[in-house]
Amino acid sequence: MMPKERSLTFDSPEETAIFARRLGARLRPGHTLLLEGGIGAGKTHFARALIQSLLPTPEDIPSPTFTLVQVYDGRNGEIWHCDLYRLGTPEEVEELGLTEAFNTAICLVEWPDRLGPLAPDTALTLAFMPDPERDSMRHVSLHWSAPEWSGLLSEAA
Q: Which parts of 43-105 are beta strand (E)?
């Protein structure tokens, strides 16, 4: 599979949320999004908007920084929102049950570098970078190798 990439710029948090909702509408169990970027880059904002769009009724979407994993019952199946910042080794990831969830749920993983070799080859990586000049602007680089992401991203953009 040949890696592909695309860059997007969002002028505001609302534009980021709109893209998250559009992409979320196309996700199915077995899809994994790896959300990269420093603290405050916009990963959790994106994840909250996406998750909220997939829930049958609105609910609070807390950051999973301390719980590590929050699981939601979405309209199309389970949604796992993970924040792996506090983990030290890929073995700790396996204890969470995340590797099984990659096959059965929609997974959003913040700090995916902690996955090491456990990161799914079919995942879509979104790298968030704040604009140095405009605090509300985000640049997002998307990387993937699974062919289905090309079509899903074209529909969502």
A: 69-74, 77-83
Distance CA 79, CA 101 (A): 9
**Residue 92, CB half-sphere, CA atoms under 13 Å: how many?**
14
d(CA 24, CA 95): 27
Q: Which tokens go with 84?
A: 């792996």
Answer whether 126's CB lies under 8 Å from 108's CB: no
User: Do residues 96 and 69 lie in contact, with contact meaning Cβ atoms separated by under 8 Å?
Assistant: yes
64 touches 70 (CB < 8 A): yes
Element (H, E) at 102: helix 98-104
Intra-chain end-to-end CA distance of the chain, in Å: 23
Q: Is 84 in a helix, a strand, or coil?
A: coil
Q: How confident is the model at residue 150 (pLDDT cuts 50, 70, 90)?
A: very high
Distance CA 21, CA 130 (A): 20
**pLDDT digit string, tens, across residues 69-102:** 999 999 989 999 999 999 988 888 888 899 999 9
Residues in the chain, overall count: 157
